[in-house]
Fold:
Amino acid sequence: MTYLLRITAKGVLTRIAAGEGTALSAAQAAALLDTDVTERLVLPVQPPEWTAGRLLCYLIDARGGDKALPANFLGTCFYHTGCPIFGDLLLAQCSAESRSDEVCGMSEADADALTAWLKAQFSAYLQE
Structure:
């Protein structure tokens, strides 16, 4: 089983089962974020314990600002520009190839390592 991590705009962290190593379709990702279109962004840093061999990325509602969704503190921090990211986000793994929009879940060990790292970095913000 592989997993995605969801972080709501309110800072609630949950784990979502994502199947057995299969790629998440654009429609599946959009459904998980209750939108019609997502955008994939790559995290500028990864936890030292990350072993997936792929990049750590996050998916956002590409229309979150237009929908007046609340800002997501973690997403905004990950974005590194000062511009806010709106709504919930999903953390997944992705290919380093920029043309590929494929994302997939992570192993339980990587989900555990990522959860621990997020809690250490953002303990004042995250809830479970």
User: Anything to note?
Assistant: The mean pLDDT is 89. The helical segments are 26-32, 73-79, 108-121.
